[in-house]
Amino acid sequence: MTLASIRQAPKAVLHDHLDGGLRPATVLELAEECGYDQLPADNAEALAHWFREAADSGSLERYLETFAHTVAVMQTAEGLRRVARECALDLAADGVVYAEVRFAPEQHLERDLTLDEVVEHTLEGFREGERLAAEAGTPIRVTCLLTAMRHAARSREIAELTVRFRDRGVGGFDIAGAEAGYPPSRHLDAFEYMRANCAQFTIHAGEAFGLPSIHEALAFCGCDRLGHGVRITDDIFDNDSAEPRLGLVANYVRDKRIPLELCPSSNVQTGAVPALDKHPFDLLARLRFRVTVNTDNRLMSDTDMSREMLKLVETFGYGWSDLERFTINAMKSAFIPFPDRLRIIDEVIKPGYAVLIG
């Protein structure tokens, strides 16, 4: 199993940030176009290296600082369309057949765009990317998730924006940002609005902060998925034994088949786990949690879905059938209608892996 062969496998990603996946050359070009002069490097190779090094701090807060540069060049209609278009094309070229890409509209208002305009231009970019990818023979479906920043006070407004656009390409809602000091229950009004409108949402929880963050996201907020969720292991005991004991929260997550949006490279970078071979992905997979493989931020982690999968293969010895299971886990958990999920699983993912498995 090689990187090239894994690129041929159909993939589904649920946790990918639009402002964390820009091409370095695009950052440079957009910065010149909009007059942003604060970039730490003036060529694509050096800029890519800076993003990777800055994100490798082991701190979620430091990791999040790198986004100041990408968000700064995503303040115009054309900038948003271009970044979204290239995002779809880059994912498709990597063999991704279904992607959920999230971003925070409230961070893109510095050039007088409205929230609705920000979403409209971004969706236009995704649709352009889908069309171009299909023409290139690498079809992809992209669903947009709208994120509210947990340190701000616009979550209800972004939840309403999500519902307003849910029939136009927006599949769900999310909160993101530094976890410590900003529990998900601070945004309970937004989550209650989503539930009242039968709308789906995920919550960044259990990454930098522990089990209380996960418990709040589930018990108080009622999330459909957990963004990251690696700290669920705080509720799993005797990890080295044949039958680890699960606490109440871990049992609930497994029994309810709540998807874990695990991002291996990013989880190491932010210090959520100490090293890839210490990542709980394999433990959780063996315990039959609904684990999924994700990129988080392709620019900051210098990664894509194929490289994330290859790292798991090399670290834990997975085969094609394992990668197929993780992909189907993700597709089962997607924020699109059930018939659409089933069609992609039956007509794209399973046939694609059947060829690889042989």
What does this structure look like?
The chain has 358 residues and is α/β, with parallel strands linked by helices. Helix content is 48%, strand content 14%. It has 16 helices and 10 strands. The strands form 3 sheets. Strands 1-2-3-4 form a 4-stranded parallel beta sheet, sandwiched between helices. It has a 4-stranded parallel beta sheet with strand order 5-6-9-10. Strand 7 and strand 8 form a beta hairpin. The longest helix is centred in the middle third of the chain and has 21 residues.
> What gross morphology would you assign?
globular
Based on DSSP secondary structure assignment, what is the total number of beta strands? 10
Low-confidence stretches: none
Radius of gyration: 19 Å
* Residue share in helix: 40-55%
Structural class: alpha/beta
Distance between the termini: 13 Å
How would you briefly describe this protein structure?
With 358 residues, the protein is α/β, with parallel strands linked by helices. It has 16 helices and ten strands. The protein is globular.
Question: Which key phrases capture this entry?
Answer:
16 helices, alpha/beta, 4-stranded parallel beta sheet
Q: What is the secondary structure topology, with strand pairs?
A:
Layout: H1 3-7, E1 11-17, H2 24-34, H3 44-55, H4 60-65, H5 67-72, H6 77-93, E2 96-103, H7 115-135, E3 141-149, H8 155-164, E4 170-176, H9 188-196, E5 202-205, H10 211-220, E6 225-228, E7 236-237, E8 245-246, H11 248-255, E9 260-262, H12 264-269, H13 281-286, E10 291-293, H14 305-316, H15 320-332, H16 338-357
Parallel strand pairs: 1-2, 2-3, 3-4, 5-6, 6-9, 9-10
Antiparallel strand pairs: 7-8
Helix pairs in contact: 2-3, 6-7, 8-9, 15-16
